[in-house]
Amino acid sequence: MTLLVSSPCVAQRPLAGDWTLDKSRSELSGRMRSNAASISQTLRIVADTALVCVVTSTTGGPLGNNETTERIVIDTVTRSFQPIERADSRASTGTRSAKWWPDALQLVVKETITREMSGQRVFATNTHTWTLSKDTDTLVVITNTQGPRGSIPTRRQFVRAKSVRTDIKPASCLSRN
Hints:
By secondary structure, this protein is mainly beta.
């Protein structure tokens, strides 16, 4: 999964770095839970003066190696939680709004999604809450999905890699198209 976050300031810069999923401290759902023994997940978060890019890579399990692309625009005071159109690499569409809360070191993303599953279009809403620990060495991503299967909560806890390469800026993320 790749997230693109745009903001006039870089208050969310503490998110930048390489992160590894700590499965022992996570509460996974769906395919990740049923295949937890063979799945690993990493995040690479890159920040520059206007953007934050999150590349999520998942390996193992029934889907093999998977990398998805999504874009998020951080709301400013004048655009507080106004939804924007979204599309991602899994052919889902909908709207998304996001807000960075610097005092809480927290990013809150709300989205509505329409996606094809088993030949039918389905509708879901997601709330993703990304929270950094005060020492910024732990990132917890809590997702609550409301959809045709009811409520599906997921809690993923990531630990920051000790060596961080901030010089890597994936072109597909930093593009403003």
